[in-house]
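Researcher: Before we compare anything, I want clean individual predictions. No alignment, no superposition, just each chain on its own. First chain goes here; please echo the sequence and then give the C-alpha cells.
Model: Echoing the first chain and its structure:
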Amino acid sequence: MDDKVILLVEDNADDEALTLRALKKNNIKNDVVVAHDGVEALDYLLGAAGSAGRQPHSMPQLVLLDLKLPRVDGLEVLRRLRADPRTHLLPVVVLTSSKEERDLVNSYSLGANSYVRKPVDFGEFTEAIRQLGLYWLILNEAPPAKGT
C-alpha cells in the first residue's frame, strides 16, 4: 500500500498542512506529492514522464483536487485529465471548500469520482480524510495503469 502515491493539488499552505497532518494522524503512509497550482498538477500528470518527479509509466493512485487554484483552476485540470487517454480513468476526488452548487455539478459533469467539502473543524476534517483513505486507497479497485 505504501507505494501508492497521492497527488494533492492544493494552493493554500494551511489546507496543505492540514491535509498532510490528517493523513499522518490516520496512519495513511502513502507518499504524497503536492502540486500548488493547476499547471504543476498537469505537468506532473501529463508532462514528459520524469520531468516533474514522476517515474515513467507511474500515476498516482488518487488525486485530491482543490477547485480554486491559480494559473489553471481545478475544473480545467479535471477537464484535461478526462480528455487524455493516460489519465481519463484516474480517480479524482474534488476536495474543496466551495459550497457552490455549480462547482458540484460541473465537477461531476467533467468526470470527478467524488466531491467532498472540506469540513472546517479539524476533527471532522481528519475523519473525512480517514474515510477517503480507507475507500480510495484500500477498498476501491483502481483501473489498470496504462503505459504512456
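Researcher: Okay. Second chain, same rules.
Model: Second chain and its structure:
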Amino acid sequence: MKRKFTVILLLFVLISTSTACTALQPNKGKVEGKNIDKATQSSDPDDESDILQEGSEEYIKSIIEEISIDVLTSIKNFDMEKLADAIHPDKGVRFSPYGYVDVDNNLVFTAEEVKNLAASSKTYLWGHYDGSGDPMELSFPDYHKKFIYDLDFLNAEQIGYNKVLSHGNSLNNSFEVYKDSIIVEYYFSSVDPKYEGMDWRSLRLVFEKKDDIWYIVGIIHNQWTI
C-alpha cells in the first residue's frame, strides 16, 4: 500500500512540474519580445543620424552640387547656350566682378541675351577696377577670362555650400541681396606662393528656386581688394 502511494505521489509531482514548465514558456517569450523591442529602439538614433539635417552644409550640398557642377562646366567651356538654360527665367543673371554685389551697377542679362554674349565683341561697362577706379570696359569674352573663369574652379581647393570661404576687404552682401538662395563658393587660398595668400580667388554661383527648379541668378567673382 505504501509503495502504491509513493508511485502515485511521484506521478503527481511529475505532472505538476511539467505543467509549471509549460506555463513559464509564454513569460519567456514576452521577456524576449521586450528585449527585441529595446534593441530596435536603441538603433533608431543611429538611423536618424544618417539622415541629413535640414539646413546643414551637407544637406544643401545634396540639393545643389550636381546643378552647380553643370553650370560651372558650361562656364568653363564657354558654352553660353547651355548656361542660358540654367538662368532664372524672370530675374536673369547678375555678374559681379568683386565680392560686393552692386545692385545698381552690376550688369544683369536675360537667358536670351546670354546666348549671344559669346560671339559678341560689344564692350560693356561692368563696373570699376579696384584701386584705380578706372572704368571696367570689356567685351564679354574678356570679362569671362578676367572676372569669371580666371582659374580652374572646377578643381577648386575648397568648395562651400552657403558657407563663406573667402575673406577680404570687400564687403560680402551676397546673402542680403540674394535672400532664400543657395550660394556655392569655389575657392583657392593661393595661386602663387610668393604672394603669401594675397592672390586668393573665388567664384560664387548663386541659385534661387522657382517652381521647384533651381536657377542661377548671380555669378560673383571675388579676390583681394584694396
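Researcher: What stands out in the second chain?
Model: The chain is about 40% helix and 20% strand. Additionally, The radius of gyration is 34 Å.
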